[in-house]
Design a protein that fits this description.
This protein has two helices and ten strands, in the order H-E-E-H-E-E-E-E-E-E-E-E. It is an alpha+beta fold. The chain has two domains: about 45 residues; about 120 residues, no CATH class. The strands form two sheets. An eight-stranded antiparallel β-sheet has the order 3-4-5-6-7-8-9-10, covered by helices on one side. A two-stranded antiparallel sheet has the order 1-2. Strand 6 and strand 7 form a beta hairpin.
């Protein structure tokens, strides 16, 4: 009888050790799986400035460019045809597009520079987003570059006019970019 009790006690201890080991393995797997989910969520979303907001999936520059231009331009550079202001199809045009955050608010703005076709000296458009909708801030013949200065929290823009070698600066006035005349750049 003593032998049977000792045998049962031994089996009970071994079963307890195996159960404990199995539970530890299950906990390890659960922790591993939750860290994988956590890591994948971290790479797919960006944190928002407000602590109660829902993480927003991060867009690539190409996705931002495509959204801003209604799909007319969907890469950082390439060739495309597009409808001009008269509804006519343009000739094949080479372009370069840049998504850049001009005011450090986390929302990138988009510049699209047309390089040939009807624009031998260049033509560019600045697209901005307000209240969830993209709009053309301004269009200009020539080229642009980002200045090292800022006005009211927005980067200034060097304007290189295609006509008359006029080099000017577009500054943010609190509502829109304006040139030295106080008007939208290239708005004659």
């Amino acid at each position: 009888m003593k032998t049977l009790i000792i045998l049962l006690a031994f089996l009970s201890i071994n079963c307890s050790k195996q159960e404990k080991s199995t539970n530890q393995n299950i906990d390890t797997v659960k922790k591993s799986d939750s860290s994988k989910v956590s890591n994948s969520q971290t790479t797919q979303s960006t944190s928002s400035p407000t602590k109660d907001s829902v993480p927003v999936p991060k867009q690539t520059d190409e996705e931002i460019i495509s959204e801003a231009t209604n799909g007319v331009f969907n890469k950082k550079s390439g060739q495309t045809k597009y409808k001009d202001e008269f509804g006519d199809m343009s000739p094949l045009t080479t372009y370069e597009a840049v998504a850049i955050d001009l005011n450090d608010d986390g929302q990138k703005e988009v510049f699209v520079q047309l390089l040939d076709g009807n624009w031998p000296k260049g033509f560019y458009t600045l697209y901005m987003k307000k209240d969830g909708k993209w709009y053309k801030e301004y269009e200009c013949m020539g080229s642009y570059s980002i200045a090292s200065s800022k006005t009211k929290g927005y980067m200034d823009i060097n304007l290189n006019a295609a006509v008359g070698n006029d080099k000017s600066l577009a500054r943010w006035n609190g509502k829109m970019y304006v040139d030295k005349r106080g008007k939208k750049p290239c708005d004659f």
